[in-house]
Amino acid sequence: MKNIHSRFTLFFGLFILLLSVACTKDFEEINQNPNFPEQAASELLLPGVLRKMAYNWGNQGWEEGFTVAQYGARLQFTSGDRYNWSPTNNPYFDAYDSMRDIENIIRDTKDNPDGQNYYGVALIIKSWIYSYLTDAYGDVPYLDATKGLSDDNITPSFTPQAEIYEGMLADLKTANGLLTGANNISGDILYGGDVLKWRKFSNSLRLRLLMRISEVDQATATAGMNEITNDLATYPIFEGNADAAVLQWNSDNPQPKYDTRSGSFDEVRLSQTLETRLKELNDRRLVVYAQPTSNSEKGIYSENLDDYVGMPNGLDDAKALSYSPTGNPEESGSNYISRLGVLLTCRACDVENASPTASQTIIMDYAELQFILAEARERNLIAVGETAAYYDNGIRASFSYYLDRITAGGWTEIGNDLQNFDLEGYLEQADVSLGGSPDENLQKIALQKWIGLFYTGFEAWSDWRRTGMPEIVPGADAANGGVVPVRFQYPNEVKSTNQPNYEAAVSRQGPDGLNTKLWWDVD
């Protein structure tokens, strides 16, 4: 009996051992639910990142992007227009939320021969997001930023901005070489899987970043710009508006201002700065960028530019609400100041004319690239092409782009105005055409670039920080010591949850204030 029991115990033990080996051999495969994958495919991650960051970019363009560059002015809740800025979570947290998905794409495709196009696209998007982020705050987590997934590092160090730029420029060059002729990118809501257009964006964005550092590291900027412009077969760039990095919205995902409240839309009005500059040049883009005043009773369009009226930037709440363009107190308030253009109009503001799709979110367009090349040629940073040709191309491209978008929205009268505008005469004006001293030419290039950068994130602010052109005059009630801010403050949550690394960044970069210049800002 004892032997039978022992044999049974031995047999049972062996059975359990074999069973445990069999059960653990394919444990990971057996315990994966095919209906709920542990990681998302690249084609599923890509559209979400593009949509989220383009939406953030558009909203930032509406806020600081409009007011600090003085395209728009605040009629109500004017603290932002007066530089009374608090530490802000945007774009910080949206950027890092998106970077987790981008790093997942990179991790899953970097060593996959069939995934090189996704890897290249991910490097381009990564560079765009980090350029947006670092140009807002300066030093930010970069080298250690996404190691929470792999190394459990939830308190990443901040990387100096010079090193971030070095990394972005290297990634963009790498991306251009990775992208092949095979259009096998799914989930691409920016370029529909067109690999060549992604390469053009990569090299055009690289030129933007090289120009950004051209005052602080001219040797790197010059070498990089010439590498691209001297070999466009290897490094293709935007060749027209059709190549631009613009996100097309749809009725399910409308342009960022379409679903906003009418009160929120009407808080931002045409800036007197934009009004004055465009009227001085008889620039008909004013009929796109703004609407006639309600008092004019002209609806969304008037052929008379006098019906488009702006207000000064930087007034306090009481002065803004009571501002009168004529000085007559009985002609004050919103009825006498222009709304921003019908392209951006919210549905609640004008259900008949608002379009969810006519306005695209411009990440970078052909006009901007041409102005970059015009400046580079005028400063002898590149040796290819002529300054005036690049410059004229930029202006023409801007007018053409807005004619296309107005046509897409079905606003016939505005479209006819742009179509019939004497663009050749505009280009020949003394205040527009080049031919003066290099400084005078650069001022004209900067002005036209500023006009063309309307609603392009806060690119106009970044360009002003680099060049000081065109001039920004703080408003009468400006806070911050009457000084235009040159950076955002880090979010309070970052200070409290990553304090040692935050303090190290502040010690290296300078005080966490609005007036601490970024590494490339040496103007």
From TrEMBL:
Transmembrane segments: none annotated. It holds the Pfam family SusD-like_2. The keyword Lipoprotein applies. It comes from the Bacteria. Keywords: Lipoprotein. This is SusD/RagB family nutrient-binding outer membrane lipoprotein. It comes from Pricia antarctica. The lineage of its organism: Bacteria, Pseudomonadati, Bacteroidota, Flavobacteriia, Flavobacteriales.
